Amino acid sequence: MMTVPIVPFLIIFPMIIAFLMLVIPLNPKANRVRNAIAYISCVAIMAAVGILVAMWIAGGTKPIALYSEGMELADNATIVGEFILMIVVTFLSFKYRKYWICILSIVPTIAITWLEKSGYITKETPRIYIDHLSILMCLIVGVIGSLIVIYAVGYMHGYHHYLHQRVQDRRNYFFMVLFIFLGAMFGFVLSDSLTWIQLFWEITSVCSFLLIGYTREPVAIRNSFRALWMNLLGGCALTIGIIMFAMTTGMNSLAGLVSFAEQAAGTPLGDFAIVPVALIAFAALTKAAQLPFSTWLLGAMVAPTPSSALLHSATMVKAGIYVLFRLSPAMHGTVTGNMVAFVGGFTFLMASFIAIAQSDGKKVLAMSTISNLGLMVACAGMGTPETIWAGIFLMIFHAVSKSLLFQDVGATENSLGSRDIENMHGLLYRLPFLAFCMFIGIAGMFLAPFGMLISKWATLRSSIDENNIIMTFMIIFGSATTSFYWTKWLGKLIAQTNEEPVKDITKPNEKISIAIHAVLMVLLCVLMPILTKTFVEPLLAEMFGKTAEVLPMSILYLLVFIIVFVFVVPVISYEASKKMHANQKLSYMSGINTGKNDGFVDSFGNERRLTLSNYYFANRLGIRKLMVPCQLISMAVLIVMMAMIIGGAF
Amino acid sequence: MDFSIRIIIAICFIVLAPFLGGLLEGCDRKISARMQRRIGPPILQPFYDVTKLFKKQYVVVNRSVHFLLVSYMALMVLTGAMLFGGTDLLMCFFVLSTAATFLYFAASVTNSPYTTIGAQRELIQMMTYEPAVLLTAVGFYVAIGSFRAADIVNSNYSLIVKMPGFFFAFVFIMTIKMRKAPFDLSTSHHAHQELVKGITTEMSGKNLGIFNITEWYENIFLLGVVALFILNRNPWSILAAVIVDLVVYFIEILIGNSNARMKWETMLKMTWIVTLLSAGVNLLVLMVIK
After folding, report:
1. Residue B282's closest chain A neighbor by CA?
2. Minimal CB count within 10 Å: which of B36, B109, B163, B203?
3. Closest partner residue to A491 among B74, B108, B126, by Cβ?
4. Which residues form the signal peptide (chain B) (predicted)?
C-alpha cells in the first residue's frame, strides 16, 4: 500500500503551479521568476514520476488499486471541476458566437452530475489503478511533458521576440494551460473511475482548445472551435457510454467495463455489453484525430509549437490510444474491433498519402501523426497480444520522435524564419545541430533499425494471422507512401548548399530538451530488445492473462545485428573517406556552371539561379482533393457500423 | 537447415555474387547487342569496365557521396546475405529499403540538378515497387506459415504452385529494380537522354564502380528471391530454380530492349494495379483456402 500520496501530488501539484504561472505578472523580471518556477516544477514532476515508478517496482510491479472508499469529497470536487469547465466553454462559445457548441459541454456535465447523485452507482471501486500501461503513460507524460515545458520556456521567448511580435504576449496564460494539462493527463492515465476519466478527458479537450486559440487570430479561433466541438462530441459519446454501463451494472470502473464486456461476449448479454465499449471507442477515435475527425489536428498546428508537441502529438492524442488499448481485450473479434481497426488502417493509409503533398514542415508532422495514430488504432482494434505489443512500441517511439521533431521544427522556424521543407535545403550546413537532431527524429520514424519498423513487422504479421486482408493492404501501401514523404525530407536536409549559415538563436534550454530527446531515441532503439522482455511482455500478460512471445529470439539477434551494422558502417566509411585524396569538381548543369554549384549560364548567355525542389503532387494528393472523400468514406463506415452495434443490442 | 550451412551459403553469396552478377551483365550486353543486330562487347567487359573505374582519378562533386555509397553497398550485401543465410524475409526487405535510402542520400547530397531529379524518381520507384516486395513476403508467410527463407526452401513442393500471382507481380517489379525500360526512370544505361545519367550523373571513378558492383549484388539478390518460389526439399529443384532465374533474366532483357521509357505516373498506376490484381487476388485466394 502506498504511504506517500504521490498520485494526488501528480494531479494536484501541476494545478497549483498553473495558478502560480497565471498570477505572476508579465514583465522581464517576473518572467524570470516564472521561468525558474517552471523549471523547478518540471524537475519535481519528473522526480515524482520517478518515485511512483520506484514504489511500483518495489511492490513487485503488481497492479496497485487505491482510494476505493471515503472519496465523497474528491467525487464532489470532480463535479465542481465539470461545472467550471462547462462555464468556461459556455462563456467562450457565447463570446465568439458559436452558441451551439456549449450544448456539447452542458449536456454531459449535467448528465454526469445526475449519474453521481442518482445513486445508480452502487459498487464502490478504486478510483486509482496503477499497472504497467498507466506507468508507461506516466513516464511518457512525465518525462516528455516536462522536457517540452522546459523547451517551451525558451521557445516562447523567441516566439514573441523574433517571429510573432504582433501577437499579444500571454505567456502566463500559456504556461497555466500547459501545467493544467499535465495534471489532467496524469489524472487521466491513473484513474480507473469512469467519471474521473470523463472529467480529465474534458479538461484535456478544453486545454487543447485554449492553446490552439492562443494567438486570437481569426484562423486560430476558427480552428480552436473546430477542435473543441469534435473533442466535445467524443466526450458526449464517452458520457453516454459511462451512463449506460453504470445503469446496467452499477459500476463506475474502466477495468470493470472491460472485464464485463469480455465475459459477456458470446452470451445473450454480449451485444448489449459491447455498446458502452463502442461508444467509448468512438470517443477515443475523435481524440486520436482519426478520419473523419482528422481536420481538428491539422487546424491545431496554428498553435505555438510546444503545444503542438505536447498535446497534439506526444501525449494528449495518445489518450485516445491509451483508452483503446485498455478496451482492446473486449474489442478483439467483435464488430466494434473491426470498426476501430478499419478506421485506423484507413487513416494510416490516406493520411500518409496526404502527407506527401505537404511542404509545410508542421503539416507533414501533423499528417504523419494522424497516420501513425491510425496504425496504433488499428493495432488496438485487432486486439491480439501481438498487435498490442506493436502498438505499445509504436506509441513509445512515436512519442519520443514526434516530440523531438516538433521541437526541432519549432526551433528551426525561430532561427530560419520559415518551416517550409523547401527552405530547409542544406540545413545540415546552415543549422547543423538542429538538422542533425531532425535527421535522427525522422530516421526514427521509418528507417531500419528503429523501432517503428519492427512494430510494422509485427502488425503486418498479425494482420495476416487474423486473416484481415484489407488491413494487410492498407499497411503495405501505407508504409510505401510513408517512406516516400520522410525520405524526401531527409534528402533536403543533407543536400549541399552555398547559402550562408543561419544564426542559431535556439536557447540552451531548447537545445537541452532536443538533445535529450535525440539521445533517448537512439537509446530506445538499442534497448528495445531488453524493453520488450522486461516491460512490454509483462504488460501483455497483465492485459490478456497470458504471455505472448511476439519477437522470436532469431529476430531479436538479427535486429541487434542490423542496429550495429546500420550505425557502424556509415561511421567507419565516413572516417575512411576523409583520408582519401579527392579532386573536387563542379556539378554538371548542361550549361556553364557559374562556379558555385548554384547557378548556370543559359543559351542566351544569361546567368540563371538553380533551385531544386522535391515532388509533392499537390494537385493529386492535396488536402483539398483527398480530405473530403476520405471523411465521407470513414463517416459512412462509422455510421453504418455504430448503427449495427447499437441496433444489435436491442 | 543447419546454422553453419546457412552461414556458408551467406558467405558464398558475399564472395560469388559480384562475379555472377558481372557475368550476367556481360550476357545481358551481348544478348541486347544481338537483339539490336550488333556484335556487342565480350562477356567479361563489365569486369574490365569496373576495374578501369577503380583505376581512375578520384573526382567528386561532394565528398560525402563516397561514404553513403559504401553504406549502400554494405547494406545491399547484408540484404543478400540475410536472404541466402535463410533469415526472415520481411526483415530482409526492410533492410533492402534502407539500403535504397542510402542511394537516395548519395544522390541528393550532391545538389546537382540531374542527380536530384534522378533521386526523386528513384524515390517514386521505391514507392512503386515496395508494396509488391512486401506482399511477396506476406505471400510466403500465408503459404507456409513462416517468413524465414530457410523454412521456405524446406517446403515439400515449389511454392509457385500456390502463389503464381505473387510471382508475376515480383517479376513485374524486377523490371523497375533492374533499371530496365520502360521503367528506367531514375537512371539508364545510356547517357544521352533527358536525365543525362539521372541518379548516377555525378558518380565517377571509384564511386561509379561501387555503384556497379552493388547493382550486381542486387541482381543476384533479386534472382535469389525468384528462386525462393521454385526451391523445395528436392535437390533437383535447385536446377529448376537456376533455369527459371535465367528465363526471368532473359525476359527482363527482352522487355528492356523492346520498350520505350514511361512517365512515372503510368509506371506507378500500372505497377500498383498489377500488384493489386495479381498478388492481391492471389493473397485473397490463399487466405480463403487456408
Report:
1. A469
2. B36
3. B108
4. none
- CB contacts < 8 Å between A and B, how many? 177
Best CA proximity match to A341, nearest among A374, A316, A294, A389? A374
Which of the 8 DSSP states describes residue A291? T
> Tell me: the pLDDT tens digits for A234-287?
999 999 999 999 888 888 888 888 888 888 877 777 788 889 999 999 999 999
Helix (H, G, I), strand (E, B) or coil at A539: helix
Q: Please report the residues numbered 488 through 507 in chain A whose beta carbons come closer than 8 angstroms to any beta carbon of chain B.
A: 488, 490-492, 494-497
Do B91 and A585 make contact, defined as CB atoms within 8 angstroms?
A: no
A336-366 burial string, b = 16+ CB within 10 Å, else e?
bbbbbbbbbbbbbbbbbbbbbbbbbbbbbbb
Per residue in A539-592, pLDDT (tens digit) is: 888 888 876 677 777 777 788 788 888 888 888 988 888 888 888 888 888 778
A611 shares contact with chain B (CB less than 8 Å): no
Residue A274: which residues within 8 A CB-CB, separation 6 or more? A261, A264, A265, A330, A334, A335, A336, A645, A649
- Domain residue spans in chain B? 3-289
Cβ of B290 within 8 Å of Cβ of A467? The answer is: yes
- Chain B residues within an 8 Å CB radius of A477: 131, 272
Output the tens digit of pLDDT for each of chain B's 290 residues: 578 888 999 999 999 999 999 999 999 999 999 999 999 999 999 999 999 999 998 888 888 899 999 999 999 999 999 999 988 898 899 899 889 999 999 998 888 888 888 999 999 999 999 999 999 999 999 999 888 999 999 999 889 999 999 999 999 999 999 988 888 888 876 666 677 788 888 888 899 999 999 999 999 999 999 999 999 999 999 999 999 999 999 999 999 999 888 888 899 999 999 999 999 999 999 988 87
Candidate from B70, B87, B127 with C-beta closest to A558: B87
DSSP A408-477: HHHHHHHHHS--BGGGGTTHHHHSHHHHHHHHHHHHHHHSTTSHHHHHHHHHHHHHHHTT-HHHHHHHHH
Query: How many Å lie between the alpha carbon of A362 and the closest alpha carbon of chain B?
Result: 22
Spatial separation of the C-alpha atoms in residues B231 and B155, rounded to whole Å: 8
The domain limits of chain A are: 13-61+68-577+628-649
A553 chain-B contacts, CB cut-off 8 A:
none
pTM score > 0.90 for this model?
Answer: yes
φ, ψ of residue B181 to 5 degrees: the values are -60, 145
| Residues sharing a CB contact under 8 Å with residue B230, sequence separation 6 or more, in sequence order | B158, B160, B237, B240, B241, B244
Q: Report the alpha-carbon distance of residue A615 to residue A634 in Å, rounded.
A: 28
B74 touches chain A (CB under 8 A): yes
d(CA A558, CA A475): 23
Please check whether residue A566 touches B, CB under 8 A.
yes
Question: How far does A100 lie from chain B, in Å, by closest CA?
Answer: 45
Kindly provide the b/e burial profile for residues B272-287, where b requires at least 16 CB atoms within 10 angstroms of the residue's own CB.
Answer: bebbbebbbebbeebe
Joined grid coordinates for residue A248: 446496467
Interface of B with A in 207-266 (CB under 8 A): none
Write b or e for each residue in A195-206: b if 16 or more Cβ atoms lie within 10 A of its Cβ, otherwise e. Answer: bbbbbbbbbbbb
CA–CA gap between residue A255 and residue B41 (Å, rounded): 74
Say whether residue B146 is in contact with chain A using an 8 A CB cutoff: no
- How many Å lie between the alpha carbon of A625 and the closest alpha carbon of chain B? 17
pLDDT bracket for residue A341 (50, 70, 90): very high
Query: Nearest-CA neighbor of A233 among A296, A187, A140?
Result: A296
* Lookup result for grid cell 481497426: A341
Chain B: nearest CA to A289, how far in angstroms? Answer: 26
Considering CB atoms only, which of A477, A497, A580 is closest to B111?
A497
